[in-house]
Design goal:
The structure holds two protein chains of two kinds. Chain A is built from no helices and twelve strands. Chain A is an all-beta fold. Chain B is an all-beta fold. Chain B starts with a strand and ends with a strand. Classes of the chains: A mainly beta, B mainly beta.
């Protein structure tokens, strides 16, 4: 079945460092891909999405490119801030009913 | 995007009791879903809430344990029945928009602790 694999955390960075969180997927067909973020004590917020190969999603300085050839959707940010500390979930939308399949989540901690 | 609210935001319940969680969306949506997030874990889909018909449950989840209602296009409830400590989790409602249907928006979640 469809699945999503994320790099294990926690990821600890200093402020202004470059961030990469790896995400790869296995899917039949052509899923849409998403990054969601969960701040401490809150629900999930959509960070960005891409719906077809070579699409780049971007929001709040974060970017991810839908790579069909490598089945990847890595999240990047050029300069992280303390306020980016959260758990990041990669997900794919599977099947005709848009069922979401999530990766395990990667906790990011950014220190001043 | 849809704005989703849930009630209660948290609760502490005794073993053997039931809790009903409400999910309200600010606009008509096509699909509504219920997820469980166990402590320190990712999200797992419980079921798709279908308007006017029985919910569609994922493997490992059954209607007797997690009855779901969706009486209209903007409201759904999830009941966690005959609770045990293993049911302690965050329960999240999500919905897809009426126009952009490939993206799910999430409520803030209900944090449930079962003693």
């Amino acid at each position: 079945g469809d699945s999503v694999t994320q790099m294990e955390g926690p990821v600890t960075l200093s402020e202004e460092a470059f961030l990469t969180i790896n995400c790869t997927y296995t899917a039949t067909g052509y899923p849409s891909l998403f990054w969601y973020v969960q701040y401490p004590g809150e629900g999930l917020q959509l960070l960005l999405k891409a719906t077809k190969a070579d699409d780049k999603g971007s929001n709040k300085g974060f970017e991810a490119t839908y790579r069909k050839e490598t089945t990847s959707f890595h999240l990047e940010k050029g300069s992280v801030q303390v306020s980016d500390s959260a758990v990041y979930f990669c997900a794919l939308s599977s099947g005709g009913y848009n069922k979401l399949i999530f990766g395990a989540g990667t906790r990011l901690a950014v220190h001043p | 995007s849809a704005v989703i609210s849930q009630k209660p935001s948290r609760d502490i319940c005794q073993r053997g009791t039931s809790l009903t969680i409400q999910c309200q969306v600010d606009s008509q949506v096509t699909m509504m879903f219920w997820y469980r997030q166990q402590p320190g874990q990712s999200l797992t889909l419980i079921a798709t809430a279908n308007q006017g018909s029985e919910a569609t449950y994922e493997s490992g989840f059954v209607i007797d344990k997690f009855p779901i209602s969706r009486p209209n296009l903007t409201f759904s409830t999830l009941t966690v029945s005959n609770m045990s400590p293993e049911d302690s989790s965050i329960y999240l409602c999500s919905a897809t928009g009426a126009v952009v249907t490939d993206t799910q928006y999430f409520g803030p979640g209900t944090r449930l602790t079962v003693l």
